[in-house]
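Changelog-adjacent note: as of this version, every example in the card shows the full chain rather than a window. The one below runs 200 residues end to end.
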Amino acid sequence: MRHLLLCLLFATPLAWADGLVLSSANTAPALAPLQTLPAQQSVTVSIGKLLVADLQGNRWLKFGPGCSASLAQSGCAASQPLPANLRAVLTRLPETLAAIAAFDDSLPSRTISPLLTRAAQQGAQLRKTLGDEAALLYLLDAQVRLQDGQGVQQSLNQLALLWPDNKQIGALLAHVRRLGLAVAAPPVGAQVVVKPLELQ
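Full-length structure tokens:
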């Protein structure tokens, strides 16, 4: 099963040199999330928004409806700087996805670490400026490196909702679900008892 999963993941090469597609939109030619985009490839968006991480130009590009452009000539695309920490995460995304495919029953259900807390905070900042795709991929990177099983499953589930037709993410989510990760007990600590208004 793991061999088949790896074959599915790498049926299309994930080692990109120019751009990485990170959203679903009606485009010509048709593009899918996690697909590479050569710098000279012209794209026309008819419906939706196309998000592309320009890994060479260190830019986060948004192509709106009616925009026809390429990474090399991106005149009608809205551009923002690509943060260095997010660029590093996207550059090693092939290794991150391969690590998920290799997870087995030894994967811990939950990891508690200040590094995860920091990644969640940084992801929240990325969500404000770049959107859900950037935030989820950034957090997923930390969850995989720290082997936070439930966190990985939650992030994959949210990515699957964003990209329902993406077979790579769907296969990885199914794989992690098959591991049957235990649901962690709520943390022990102070509890607040809320009384009905008539008893106060």
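Structural remarks: Helices lie at 2-9, 84-91, 93-102, 114-129, 132-145, 149-162, 167-178.
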